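During the reporting period, our protein records have gained a structure token line. One record among many is quoted in full directly below:
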Amino acid sequence: MQNPKKANMIHRMKIARGHLDKVIEMVENGDYCLDILQQSQAVQSALSKVDDIILENHLKTCVKRAMMTESEVDEKVSEIIEVFKRK
């Protein structure tokens, strides 16, 4: 993975970690359920953005390379499908 993308991913994961720490604190303090839910959704959104960056990078590197050489294309497509089936 290229450095700018890697740095962006790490930044977004740290944001998600900050939100998650806040969610844990809110649960421990017995905060209002909908406030906790809102923070939880922020964690999920931040991680979803990281997923998008990882998928884009994978498609532009590993899958592109497989398509150019016509090797492992089916395998790469199957890998992506399996990841999305887990959601």
User: Anything to note?
Assistant: The domain at 3-85 is CATH 1.20.58.1000 (Methane Monooxygenase Hydroxylase; Chain G, domain 1). The CA atoms of residues 23 and 40 lie 6 Å apart. The mean pLDDT is 88. The chain has three helices and no strands.
